[in-house]
Amino acid sequence: MSGVEAAVAAAVRAAAASSATAVVVAVAVGDREQVRCFGRTGRGRATACTPDTVFELGSVSKTFTALLLSAMAAGGELALPEPVERLLPADWPAVAVRSGGPVRLLHLATHTSGLPRLPPGLLASALPTWGGNPYAAFGEEELRAALARTTVRATPGSRYRYSNYGVGLLGRALAERAGLPYGELLARRVLAPLGLGATTCAPNAAGRAVGHRHGRALPPWRIPGLPGAGAVRASGADLLRYLRAHLDGHPAGLAAALREVRRPRLRLPGSGDELCLVWNRRRSGGRELYFHSGGTRGFTAFAGFSPQESVAVAALANAGPVLNGRFVQAGYEVLRAAGRRA
């Protein structure tokens, strides 16, 4: 068994251990690609998993928001150093900043805004549905209320702190500048140009797998107030196509944006890794590995690519992350193995 095959097998075992019934591992090396599918989209007599089966991406959605930001900047609609409050409605509360400031779009895309991981008030509103979907009841009014309660104590840009709130707010700001809902804006500016026909923010996407947590089937993930942080879902074939665009720089209309999301912006504390626009970058054996993972209550996702060997890997499972779960690490190992093979 080759290193790539062994790594794929390990990913499938890790997904099965977390109660997944459907797994897709898609690998591209140069001009060659393979989308390997395992299992069925749900329990019982569900449909067999295929390259077009749609999975929730969770925080891998943030990379789509970063590309949308980069595309709008390349088109002159905004600038990365622009304060986020300039993009939001005039009657919305502004984030209070204790020192320095303001919070800029670049800060949101690099987790250096100083915003907390979750918006104020989300945990309290989420308690009734915490086991299923803590974001379902967090909509526009809740986001406005959260902004009014938010105080940034560290100088924006001075400290890394991973924030769903921050990237979700970025997605909302981009939508406001364009005058379109986030999902429609993403479809027009990113998904359609890349030919990602099975990628969407719609919860009831056609051909979707059923998510599971500890063996229990869950309804589709909904994140109405912060879609830019985790609302995207895609098939394995689409996600691989998306990653290959980061390698090839095509289509031409997104070439500049695809280059910019790969540019390192800061070094992560306590690590040799760097952060680009949302993407993590790691140097390993003379190679550069870009990667991000994500999870909803019912799905886990890994996406990564390596430009030197023209390698891309997407790994998707229809089971939510579990304590001591190995699926994300297994996806990363597929990326490493595919690079060695190249």
From TrEMBL:
GO terms for molecular function: hydrolase activity. Keywords: Antibiotic resistance, Hydrolase. InterPro entries: AmpC-like, Beta-lactam-related, Beta-lactam/transpept-like, Beta-lactam_class-C_AS. It catalyses: a beta-lactam + H2O = a substituted beta-amino acid. Belongs to the class-C beta-lactamase family. This is Beta-lactamase. It comes from Kitasatospora phosalacinea. It holds the Pfam family Beta-lactamase. Its EC number is 3.5.2.6. It comes from the Bacteria. Residues 12-321 form the Beta-lactamase-related domain.
